[in-house]
Specification:
alpha/beta
């Protein structure tokens, strides 16, 4: 029986039911979840700022896990993973490399969102042969205009959320309009589908370290993205307040042969608002 079959031998394809596992590498214990059939090239998910294992939308993960081995993980110092959060995106990419190699994989596909997409770019530039295909959602390039402003936007929206007793992601990821508000509520509800064995929330110190790393990434000299020749799918909403939507177009221009999808009347969480349209596209892209 493979490690994440259920006792009756059926494969777990529901993220809400995927067991949390750990693996230790370089003195750090990483928490991760895996689901889907355990064969072929796995799809490793790189999560966003302040996120833990519990922050992936099952309506994105589950369709991919139907036919693919999916792995999500907590970065060093986040959630149930031990150690300290690295103070740069490049160092986070090194952490991701360590984790993937610890699991014994020589090649993976990467599905990344927001800060995860920044980490993915640095990983590919350093280890081009490790990754076969790349999904970059709600993200931007090193040195991208106004990425460094994410800190102010984040703190402002955290404050707004606190005052209205809502989740900051409702403000950060979605437009505050007639379409955005219900989409935000539905997304937050989906994140609650898992009721047992939930992850530990990120600590304030870890969150602040991540924000500083993003600011540094935004203020750094641009990377040479012409070196990325991997099949790449880029997606965002047309009104991303965290990582400006124009930067998705910038990535598309600089990564040769990449595909770009911009969803209308949506923000940073465009792929979550339009999960019913985006999931089939992501599944097809990764299967191609």
């Amino acid at each position: 029986m493979s490690s994440f079959d259920t006792p009756n031998g059926s494969v777990v394809t529901s993220y809400a039911k995927a067991a949390t596992r750990t693996i230790t590498a370089g003195g750090v214990t990483y928490a991760y979840r895996e689901l889907g059939p355990k064969a072929g090239i796995p799809v490793v998910f790189f999560v966003h700022l302040a996120a833990t294992l519990d922050n992936w939308d099952p309506h994105i993960v589950d369709p991919i896990a139907k036919n693919r081995h999916v792995i999500t993980f907590d970065q060093r110092g986040v959630g149930a993973s031990t150690g300290q959060v690295p103070d740069s995106i490049e160092a986070m990419a090194d952490v991701a490399y360590t984790f993937i190699k610890a699991l014994g994989f020589d090649q993976v596909d990467v599905f990344s969102f927001s800060m995860g997409g920044m980490i993915a770019q640095d990983l590919l530039l350093k280890h081009p042969d490790l990754v076969r295909k790349l999904v970059l959602a709600g993200t931007g390039p090193r040195g991208g205009k106004d990425i460094d402003k994410v800190v102010g936007t984040t703190y402002w929206d955290v404050l707004r959320a606190t005052l209205t007793r809502s989740d900051p992601k409702e403000f950060l990821f979605f437009n505050r309009n007639a379409t955005g508000k219900p989409a935000a509520k539905a997304f937050i509800k989906r994140l609650q589908e898992r009721t047992v064995d939930r992850d530990k929330p990120i600590s304030t110190k870890a969150f602040q370290t991540q924000l500083k790393a993003i600011r540094k990434f935004g203020r750094s000299a641009p990377s040479d993205l012409s070196r990325l020749t991997h099949p790449t799918l880029i997606a965002n909403g047309d009104n991303d307040r965290m990582v400006p939507s124009v930067l998705s177009g910038d990535l598309h221009r600089r990564i040769k042969g990449s595909e770009l999808i911009i969803y209308p009347d949506s923000g940073h969480g465009g792929i979550f608002q339009f999960h019913d349209r985006f999931s089939p596209v992501a599944v097809e892209f990764l299967a191609r």
